[in-house]
Design brief:
The complex is a heterotrimer of chains A (about 140), B (about 575) and C (about 450). Chain A is an alpha/beta fold and about 140 residues long. Chain A contains 4 helices and 4 strands; from the N terminus they run E-H-E-H-E-H-E-H. Chain A has a single domain, classed as Rossmann fold, CATH 3.40.50. Helix content of chain A is about 40%, strand content about 15%. Chain A is globular and about 40 Å long. In chain B, helix 7 runs parallel beside helix 8.
Amino acid sequence: MSKKIFDPNIVAFTCNWCSYGGADLAGISRIQYPTSAKVIRLMCSGRVDPVMVLEAFKNGADGVIVSGCHIGDCHYSTGNYRTQVRFQALQTALESIGMDPQRLRLLWASASEGQQWAEAITEMTEQIKKLGPSPISGRGKK
Amino acid sequence: MGSGESPKVGVFVCHCGHNIAGTVNVEHVAELASEFPNVELSTHFMFMCSDSGQALIREKIEELGLNRVVVASCSPRMHEPTFRKVVEEAGLNRYCFEQVNLREHVSWCHMKEPEAATQKARDLVRMSVARASLLEPLEVKTVSVEPHALVVGGGVSGLRAALDIGDRGFRATLVERTGNLGGNLAKLSTLYPNNEPAKDVVDRMSLAAEASENVTILLNSEVTNFDGHIGNFEVTVKNNVTEEESEMKVGTVIVATGFDPFEPIGYYGYGDSPDIITLSALEEMKRDGTVLRPSTAQPPKNVAFISCVGSREEGVKGHEHCSRYCCTAMAKVAAELREEADEVLMLYDDIRTFGKGHEDVHRRARQEHVIFSKYNKKKKPAVKINDSGIMLKWNDVLSGENCEFRPDMLVLANAMVPPEGADEVAKIFSLTRSADGFFNEEHIKLAPLTTHTAGIMIAGAAQSAKSATDSTTQASGAAAKAVSLIARGEVEIESTVASVIDELCSACHTCVTACPYGATSIEATKGVEVARVTEAKCHGCGTCAAGCPSGAIVMRHSTDDQISSMIAALLSSAFVHGGGEK
Amino acid sequence: MTEAEKLATLSQMSPTQTALVIGGGVSGMQASLDLADQGFNVVLVEKTPSIGGAMAMLDKTFPTLDCSACILTPKLSEVARHPNIELLTYSEVTGISGQAGNFKVKVLRKARKVLEDKCSGCGDCVEHCPIEIPNEFDQGLGFRRAVYVGFPQNTPLVYTIDDENCIKCEMCVKACEREAIDLAMKDEEVEIPVGAIVVATGFELFDVSKYPRLGYGEYKNVINALEYERLINAAGPTAGHLLRMSDGKIPKSIGFVQCVGARDVTNQVPYCARVCCMYGIKNAVMAKELQPDNVKNVTVYYADIRAYGKGFEEFYNMAQTRFGIEFIRGRVGEVAENPKTRNIEIRVENTETGEYLQHEHELVVLCPGILPPKELRVIASELGVDVDSDGYLFVEHPASNPVDTKVPGVFVCGCAEGPKDIPDSVAAGSAAAMRASITLAKGGEV
């Protein structure tokens, strides 16, 4: 176990219209990035209930990304404003339970931003590698 | 199949030729998936989307009584409709299908890590199997289509579309922001490749549109409000002169909002001398009579053109694209000016006279002794302006020589860029945009006219820079899409809407404020206030469900349980396998 | 429905409710779907055994590198299953008379020797056929039997017996449990009344052997771009392994030669073929993508790079920056083979530097332009439609009426009007459907 390279497990909630398309475009453009993020496709980032994010952490996720259309570009007009507000509340909540808020990221990525998507996943993976496994996952101890 | 039945999941892993199988060990993924909960069958196949792949799915559904199907292949943005149809043909409800994206999200972006990619594929399949087990069949609904199309934009594309819909016997309302029809084409002199006067083209179409009893033209007007669903959109159009607003119902929309000619401020001394003009301005001059040097009102004797002004600029957002029209337009007008001018010079990067008859235009310019010089893309031409006029210096790539020319008029072949107000249009019609700023089509190859918003089509330069011919082709094509909706008279809509569990609702109004469409309201039923969802207004974003503090809102096809099951399926496996296995 | 019943039905079509689409490539397919979706009947005539056209032969598509089969296959099924589309593959239009609203179209049903209503596409017959001949669909690089489908997604999935090569041994007849094979089948002709016609006959590839100096046909490691597409295709003759013809080795260095049979007045192809720059770049990128460790150098020799369409310029940039494809501006003068290594030496002047280059590549791919298909002239004259100087159908008012021929009720789309890429062909297919539907809705009245 101790010899294992830490490979973070990231839950990525994306909206169907912008961010999922951006992630598709990264693949279509053959932009290479780490395998850490596993996408859960929702119609809108506004569908992401803060409870789901906490559930992901509770289950041992090393990181969570919530990704949607840029503010103003939401397919559902204003859904992502909600996302933003909920995200801020979540960051505070994470801090209060002793989880590094860097483990949660909000990413605005449009359907044309494959590069941005790949970069964000790469960056976040690196960041979490530095932070180490989630304290909840039980993998932190050697 | 009833919802009470225990799930029997079939997993079908696609090789997609080499596309997936070249990186992901699909046989192994299929083997692992057979151990996942509720999986009755797990198999793999070369092309799941092929007829034989589809037949395999149908066969297995019937043979094994599968009631949930997971296909692990490409992006659901591509083939979800295909596979939904397949399971439907085998008697399953379309919402009992779940797709895993092993191509765009795995094999194509993790090409150098086959092992890690295979593990990710396994995880994604496990997540989807978990979700699939909880999927519920939903009633498929159809709505009637209002036999009336809205066409936004009165350029050639909008005109062509409105005319075709009208000629086919259906109503079209064309909304144009300015006071004139014809858009940018009306500013041109003659068109390549056949030298037809632009005015003839515009007149032919606008007169026909005005004469058509099926076509209503609203000039000086803009769409200010837009609501509803495919088949039944509610539109508010405001006349900017009278300030009057009118409302109408349409079944479908064609967005043909065109382009703006780029104002090349900061390029090649534009604005510093009256004799440095854009190709669009030159065309307007030609349309209105003769081409005269602005500073002297005399015919120019030495004219230079520079190509790709605001186009093909790598790394410059909104200007990376080729504008597609300019090379041929420039070659055409250069040849025409050569009849009067002593020297006409064309500085270019590549000559892109690609279309029908374009090479003839290019050849004619060379026959007329227009001087073609390829400039250095990395060291673009320099323009200096002093008392003696314009001095143009550049490096001719083909001879390697540094050259100079003193044009008395310099014409900049300016880019086509998305028009002012494109942001608003995108918002109103929920369109996404590509990196060049133009609107995104549903699929860049096979669905260039439809968009991701059902019932809304795009045509012409609204989709990307292009010529009149390519624009009107798209416009007729988009009209065909609109007309088939209207001709069929009804259309299926998504059943993925929100609903309320009355017993759990505390009437806190959170969902009412969260809904972008006013689809939720609080109503008193049997004396108790509870939230209500007006399904026709619900677009299915789920923002209400995410906000509901009581868990009283069920977002169909995206329920809390379905989402949580994916989280659990991913992370429980991490515990078992110790996360990344290396 | 049996063949006889089918022909009887076809001869009784109601002309004001029926359109004819000639050509089952992507443009004709789209035209058919957009007409059929409006509720009109469509008779789609395709001369080969399958619809899908050239797109079915392609491996990937530019500028997104989507696999061609992946995006095309669902369309093939959609056309085949559409209740309003009558698919006549392995058939040819032999005569047309009448006018808008009431054309009479003669269609030759070539004897497929396999009953469409009985064949299930199982392929049990194939292994019993003793004859092996080069597969046209694979550009002759792979083999097929005399009873065959060109490719796995052949639509309709019905086998065809190639009469020319069949030795009538009847092995297949015995093998077929469904008794679907009828070697005595004869060609049949049917006259179909239709109200509007869409011409979507596509293109022919320029024959690159017309440039002897480029070595095609003489040197094994000089191939054309469509052969390359089949080589890198997973369903192709090498199962997608990029190798060279002379020795089966993975080529470490590949040269792509652009504008072969395009923009060349002396070879009667003065026009730009509109697709070769982009498919050339795509194929160059694919070499690097398929064999990132083995293919060291990929060079494209070009005259102008015409990356004009949506996302094209961005793709061209990506090919240089992300994939390291080299671009050299210069028309290739000639090629020669190194007899020992069978490598190909390209002689070219780099017009940007003035250098005279001799580059050795292990594989050279010639990127041919496209031509109007031979039968287009015949169809045009049957229809009374003019062809332009390049041999494509003439359109009088391209800016306002880009798919209208001068004959009322006759429309054109895709490469029959001039070279086009896939999205432009698809858009034109929809446009032709729109225009044809107006003719039908008005009962042929102009």
